[in-house]
Amino acid sequence: MAISTALWSFALVVGLLTLTPGLDTALILRTSALGRRKRALGVVLGIQSGTLVWGALTSLGVTALLTASHVAYEALRYAGAAYLLWMGGRMIIRTLRDRVAEGVELPGTEARALAPQGTDGLAAGWRQGALTNLLNPKMGVFYVAVLPQFIPAGAPHFATGLLLTGVHIVLGLLWSALLVSFAQVLRGRLQRPQARRLLDRITGTVIAGFGLRLAMSD
Predict the structure, then answer these.
(1) What percent of the chain clears pLDDT 70, i.e. is strictly above it?
(2) What's the whole-number average pLDDT of the chain?
(3) Would you give the DSSP letter of residue 74?
(4) Rounded Cα–Cα distance for residues 65 and 62 (Å)
(5) Helices (H), 69-192
(6) 198 and 78 in contact (C-beta within 8 Å)?
(7) What's the average model confidence in pLDDT over 36-43?
(8) DSSP assignment letter at 148
(9) What angle do CA 35, 87, 201 make, to 5 degrees?
(10) Which of 27, 38, 215, 218 is most enclosed, with most CB atoms within 10 A?
(11) What pLDDT score was predicted for residue 191?
(12) Which of 28, 5, 11 is nearest to 207 (CA)?
């Protein structure tokens, strides 16, 4: 297989994967729709940083050890599930807390304690996106199963693996840019507290659902 053929074939596979709605899509849309531009950028960069790590580890053969070790795989799976359940649950709980704060006039200290804690920080968004990606063992399984098939015989394994991973990252960045642009259109309708709470409840439920599914999967 020529390297150009491998690149186009791999781009088709990961392109379809990128377009499939999932956890990353929900997280990017929610963060962008709330007007947190820096945090949304951080989430996107964090997700793609995770993709780069998975690709590099697979190219080095490290990810194969993870998938071969039942204990390591299960530990990562449960850690990822716990993180997603925590993140989704926190979003849902925050909407209930914000509703109380909105309906009751509180002293200064209590009002600040009940104020929304979401920040528009690039680093916080990067950390959230990276953890969401890296704590998903299914990404490792996908790369172990798919990436080696597109590395031509005789090609430098590590360099070619990184090149293919770069294709995945570029497609992910392009799709994320479209998601952010779409979310900006909805931003005006989400200025009301009720709309923001509804968005957080929906997104929190979706994220917690992914966590529950990850915990119950084999």
Answers:
(1) 88
(2) 84
(3) H
(4) 5
(5) 70-103, 108-114, 122-134, 137-146, 157-187
(6) no
(7) 91
(8) G
(9) 60
(10) 27
(11) 66
(12) 28
Residue 176 has pLDDT above 90, yes or no: yes
Q: What is the DSSP letter of 135?
A: T
Q: 179-184 contacts: CB < 8 A, separation 24 or more?
A: 179/25, 179/28, 179/29, 179/32, 180/28, 180/32, 180/40, 180/44, 182/29, 183/28, 183/29, 183/32, 183/33, 183/40, 184/32, 184/33
- Residue type at position 8: W
Interatomic CA distance for residues 3 and 162, integer angstroms: 13
* Tokens read off for 110: 């209590």
Please give the pLDDT value at position 218: 65
Alpha helices, H only, 156-192: 157-187
Q: How far apart are CA 149 and CA 9, in angstroms?
A: 10
CA distance 140 to 77: 11
